[in-house]
Design a protein that fits this description.
six-stranded parallel β-sheet, alpha/beta, nine-stranded mixed β-sheet
């Protein structure tokens, strides 16, 4: 397959490093406005997961400076979009309409209506559309999903997902919520996606927190009323500019035991109520390579990505928007309850 990568920042570099290790794939085109990166030198890139930049041989790839030019390249089978979030919808819909399959980095979009238009474009043109929610391919989260679905834990009484980091400094667009969505969309969308997959769409959301985008701070704590758990909390966000370390974790308490994971040094494990515990399987495979391999296999077989469906990614966008709206409501009212229901409101842009 011939694939083009749009955007050579941290995620574009990460995807390229994975793509060059996948057999049967040709990185046929790349797009960036940075000439150094178009030449394959991404050694100065450093992301929040500690994945270093690299020098990649792009001598055989066509070079583009505008995304429109790459979309018009008829020799490409698929497009991998790693551009600022506000560009995801227009670029994805253009690529899908041009007959390309599309992998787009998370978050899918900044509003439910934008996400819906992307899905409509994929269906109308019979193309594969997948959002790169890499957590679905990371062992601690993949194994958690399997464990909860197995029923071995029993009823989930409490679920907590936490994720925080320093604000990314990959571009000025990150500090503009109209372009990035802030820490809720850029960071916590991961946990929203997993929580919805496990416990269903919330009927009610209550949020508190603080936003100072110019200062690089965007934090939130949201409590969800969901059918699959008695209590669900998602918390975290951006913590200033600087060396504040990235971390992610979860704690699930259920009738038969508890499951816990922390990227700060505690592997995913189940602590059963009888006093025993077991560490969940943890493969060494690169989750980015796994997600892209899965996407390409869906393209080859012309099937929808069941492991990471676009409609689920759209629901995560809609719920993230409700979290932010509920936080704004709490700052002007003694009540912090978001009374919107996940029906037509899911497809409304801000």
């Amino acid at each position: 397959m011939r694939i083009g990568v749009l955007g050579l920042g941290f995620m574009g570099s990460t995807h390229l490093q994975a793509l060059v290790r996948i057999p049967g794939v040709e990185v046929a085109a790349v797009m960036s406005r940075n000439e150094k990166r178009l030449a394959g030198d991404m050694s100065d890139i450093q992301g929040n997961l500690g994945i270093p930049g690299a020098r990649i041989d792009l001598s055989g790839a066509r070079k583009y400076r505008k995304w429109e030019s790459m979309i018009a390249d008829r020799e490409l089978d698929a497009i991998d979009i790693c551009l600022p979030t506000n560009l995801h919808e227009p670029v994805a819909t253009a690529a899908l309409s041009a007959g390309r399959d599309v992998l787009v980095e998370k978050p899918m979009a900044l509003g439910g209506a934008s996400a819906a238009r992307m899905i409509d474009a994929a269906e109308r043109n019979s193309r594969v559309l997948m959002v790169a929610h890499v957590l679905r391919f990371m062992p601690p989260y993949r194994e958690l999903i399997a464990l909860v679905r197995s029923g071995r834990l029993g009823r989930v009484r409490s679920a907590l997902f936490r994720r925080r980091t320093a604000v990314p400094t990959w571009g000025a667009w990150e500090f503009d919520s109209a372009q990035s969505g802030g820490g809720v969309f850029d960071l916590l969308i991961h946990d929203v996606d997993i929580a919805l997959e496990l416990f269903g769409v919330p009927s009610n959301i209550a949020s508190t927190g603080y936003e100072n985008m110019r200062g690089g701070v965007d934090v939130i704590t949201s409590h969800f009323d969901v059918p699959g758990a008695d209590s669900l909390t998602i918390t975290g966000g951006w913590h200033h500019v600087g060396d504040y370390p990235f971390s992610m974790e979860y704690t699930i308490l259920a009738d038969n035991g508890a499951v816990e994971f922390s990227s700060a040094g505690r592997p995913a494990a189940v602590y059963w109520k009888d006093g025993t515990h077991e560490v969940l399987p943890a493969a060494d495979a690169d989750p980015y390579q796994a997600e892209i391999t899965y996407f390409l296999e869906c393209c080859r077989t012309r099937r929808r990505p069941a492991l990471c469906p676009a409609d689920a990614s759209a629901r995560a966008v809609a719920v993230a928007r409700r979290m932010v709206d509920a936080r704004a409501f709490s700052s002007t009212s003694p009540r912090s309850s978001d009374i919107l229901r996940p029906t037509n409101g899911e497809r409304e842009d801000p």
